[in-house]
Design brief:
The complex is a heterotrimer of chains A (217), B (351) and C (139). Chain A has 217 residues and is mostly helical. Chain A has 9 helices and no strands. The longest helix of chain A is centred in the N-terminal third of the chain and has 29 residues. Chain A is globular, with a radius of gyration of 20 Å. Chain B is 38% helix and 10% strand. Chain B has a 5-stranded parallel beta sheet with strand order 2-1-3-7-9, with helices on both faces. Chain B has a two-stranded antiparallel ribbon with strand order 4-8. Chain B is of the alpha/beta class and 351 residues long. Chain B folds into 2 domains: 226 residues, Rossmann fold; 34 residues. Chain C has 2 domains: 96 residues, HupH hydrogenase expression protein, C-terminal domain (Ribosomal Protein S8, Chain: A, domain 1); 31 residues. Helices cover 40% and strands 22% of the residues of chain C. Chain C contains 3 helices and 5 strands. A 5-stranded antiparallel beta sheet of chain C has the order 1-5-4-3-2. The N and C termini of chain C lie far apart (75 Å). The chains are: A mainly alpha (217), B alpha/beta (351), C alpha+beta (139). Chains B and C meet through α2 and α3 of B and β1, β5 and α3 of C.
Chain lengths: 217, 351, 139
């Protein structure tokens, strides 16, 4: 068994199993925790919890006007790499095939040239995010191992993917194997670190919105 | 005179001029991407060389490799090689000669000690004392070791000899191994493929003959001249891959339009061979051109890579079972965690 | 500027790329006498590209057919010193196709060894018929 066989076989299979296990474990544990009974009376004139949650999700897509200037970089850069990652992950034919092979679901792909360009922009954007994190005293102060490790496992598949399509550094089969292994690491880490925001971001924002609306904030 | 004459003299005897060497060398130079001055000196060196003694051993194989190398019609450029080599022993071609040919092998070995080339096709069974393949009362292992002892170099022809090939595929009932697993003290050149491209075989032999040395090899012992690029990078369908145009099945519109075969399992991106450039049968076509994805036959263990029709980016193995099990386990673990937390909370409230 | 295929009307920019490489090599030959060979089979040229390149180079004064281990043809293009060489292999498929930028392609030269052998043969031929005639008088 060579490295590619290992990556395509045991490594990615175990990683996906860990991902699914971890995600369901955390989501079920959270969703079935139950809410404490709230005995306060909801403020009048506020929307119901569902609409309040939805409003909060929408509102947080943009920075608050007070912080618009201060948060400009984080806002734009954040959007760039999130959208970039989505395009690369869901628009590249080999990635769609990976998903189709698992689920049977398929959709049209973007031209590979577009993916390469978006991949490069995404990588640059992630690097900029790290530079910002290190150079900003406040951000550096609140950063933990989780933040840095999450950054590494996020950018690794982007860089190894670009290296694979560009044949940089090693033979294609080796680069492809490393790319798949880097994704395996990402999948394994996802449920247990800050990457879990992929599943919680809208839940937590919605929950906050619903909670605050009831109190009339 | 014939056996001691140079190749130039031999061919001149048959009325073939030195132009044939110029033509053959530029042909090989093109195949092997040699610099023009190298192929020019190759023409001169070949004309000066003596006929090369070759001993061909056939082990666990299907004779497809021999079919491939002999699949040409005289008199053409491609089979000039048969004027350059003296095939002193070929088990399959000479089987009818019986015991006499075994003497021919020993004579050739003695007369060309240290200079002859051993070409091997087929893998060598080691299980149960190697009884699964024998000839003239000897096991393949014994014949290989005896014949390679005084060889100049060994050429493993085909994937079976180079990497074990199909006999070594799971569950490998005969304990098949490659030539390189046994012979450790001679230069070994692997020309894998199922079968190998004839030009890769003859080109390598001609190179050995002209320059007296082994051509540059990759990490799997394959001449870089023929196995330096993967099929995908040199494939004429590559532009469709870049544009995202893929055949989804073997008879859909995309297949008819000649789009990329990645989705139907083509292993071109991880297969190193000259199929896309040298092609087959004198440049007529190659598997991808005929509409089928590459099987990766020049790579080790190509038979056990999880399916010829699974796309390269797809995972292989019991993914569904594993992920399904993990999903159930995750849900149960999550519910249990929630139940424990609720229980603790309610007991705190009570207490 | 784009080159256009004579057959399909599709753009064939590769033909122009090769043409400019030939132009550089030909200038070099004229100045320094350095020869160049461009292997057309190693380039990703489509039949359209090849046809277009042939059209751009045109026809010259020399056309040679060779019978050397199969057929070959050597043509001078419309530009002196630029030769189009095709070696045919199995089933008259093109085994090698190259552009040689040289004064005379190497394959057209008679090799000194061949000349020496031919001289011996011819010398024999000059004396042999006399001997034949003496032994076997015409009937």
């Amino acid at each position: 068994m060579d490295l590619l066989d290992f990556a395509r076989g045991p490594a990615i299979n175990v990683a996906m199993a860990v991902l699914v296990f971890g995600v369901l474990w955390r989501l079920f544990a959270l969703l079935f925790l139950g809410k404490p009974v709230d005995r306060t009376i909801p403020r009048l004139g506020t929307p119901g919890p569902f609409w309040a949650g939805l409003r909060e999700i929408g509102r947080r897509m943009l920075p608050h006007p007070t912080f618009a200037t201060a948060e400009r970089f984080a806002f734009f850069n954040g959007w760039v790499f999130h959208v970039g990652l989505a395009i690369v992950v869901f628009g590249f034919r080999p990635h769609i095939l990976f998903i189709k092979n698992l689920t049977g679901l398929s959709w049209p792909a973007l031209p590979s040239g577009v993916i390469y360009a978006v991949g490069a922009i995404t990588a640059l954007s992630l690097i900029a995010a790290l530079v910002k994190r290190i150079t900003s005293p406040v951000q550096r102060f609140i950063s933990t191992f989780d933040d840095y490790f999450t950054w590494v496992v996020t950018i690794a598949p982007v860089l190894t993917g670009l290296a694979a399509v560009g044949h940089v550094g090693a033979r294609y089969e080796t680069l492809l194997a490393i790319h798949i292994l880097s994704i395996a690491v990402l999948l394994i880490w996802l449920p247990f670190g800050k990457l879990f925001h992929a599943f919680l971001v809208f839940l937590s924002r919605g929950q906050t919105g619903a909670f605050l609306a009831r109190r009339g904030v | 005179m014939a056996e001691f004459a140079t190749l130039g003299e031999r061919l001149a005897e048959h009325g073939i001029s030195r132009r044939a060497f110029v033509k053959y060398a530029s042909y090989l130079g093109s195949l092997m991407a040699l610099a023009p001055e190298v192929s020019r000196s190759m023409a001169a060196e070949l004309a000066k060389a003596r006929r090369q003694s070759v001993i061909w051993l056939s082990f666990q194989e299907c004779t497809g490799c021999t079919e491939s190398i002999t699949r040409s019609y005289s008199p053409t450029l491609e089979d000039l090689i048969f004027d350059f080599i003296s095939l002193d022993y070929h088990e399959t071609l000479m089987a009818a000669s019986g015991e006499g040919i075994e003497h021919a092998r020993k004579e050739a070995m003695a007369a060309n000690k240290g200079k002859y080339i051993v070409a091997v096709d087929g893998s060598i069974p080691l299980k149960d004392g190697g009884i699964y393949s024998t000839s003239a009362g000897q096991s393949n292992l014994a014949i290989l070791e005896e014949t390679c002892k005084d060889a100049f170099a060994v050429i493993s022809i085909g994937t079976c000899a180079a990497f074990g090939g199909i006999p070594k595929a799971k569950p490998n009932p005969t304990g098949a191994v490659s030539v390189a697993d046994i012979i450790k003290d001679k230069p070994i050149i692997n020309i894998p493929g199922c079968p190998p491209i004839p030009e890769a075989m003859t080109g390598t032999i001609a190179y050995l003959l002209a320059f007296g040395k082994v051509p540059e090899l990759d990490h799997l012992g394959r001449p870089k001249a023929f196995f330096g690029d993967n099929i995908h990078d040199r494939c004429y369908r590559r532009p469709f891959y870049e544009r995202g145009q893929f055949a989804k099945s073997f008879d859909d519109e995309g297949a008819r339009a000649g789009w990329c075969l990645y989705e139907v399992g083509c292993k071109g991106p991880v297969t190193y061979n000259a199929c896309a450039t040298t092609k087959w049968n004198g440049g007529v076509s190659f598997p991808i051109q005929s509409g089928h994805g590459c099987l990766g036959c020049s790579e080790p263990d190509f038979w056990d890579k999880g399916g010829f029709y699974v796309p390269l980016s797809g995972s292989v193995g019991p993914t569904a079972k594993l992920v399904g099990g993990a999903a159930i386990a995750g849900a149960v673990a999550g519910l249990a965690a929630a139940a424990v937390a609720r229980h603790r909370k309610s007991s705190l409230n009570k207490g | 500027m784009n080159s256009v295929s004579p057959m399909t009307g599709e753009a064939t920019p590769l033909a122009l790329a090769v043409l400019s490489e030939i132009a550089t090599a030909l200038a070099r030959l004229a100045e320094t006498g350095e020869e160049t060979t461009i292997d057309l089979k190693s380039l990703p040229l489509s039949p359209d590209d090849l046809a277009r390149l042939g059209e751009l180079l045109g026809e010259g004064e020399v056309r040679c057919d060779l019978e050397v281990a199969g057929r070959s043809e050597v043509r001078e293009t419309g530009f002196s010193g630029v030769w189009w060489i095709r070696h045919l292999g199995l089933g008259d498929e093109v085994a090698l196709e190259e552009i040689a930028i040289t004064f005379v392609p190497e394959i057209l030269h008679a090799h000194p060894d061949d000349v020496a052998r031919a001289a011996r043969r011819l010398a024999e031929a000059v004396t042999a018929p006399l001997a034949d005639e003496e032994e076997t008088p015409r009937g």
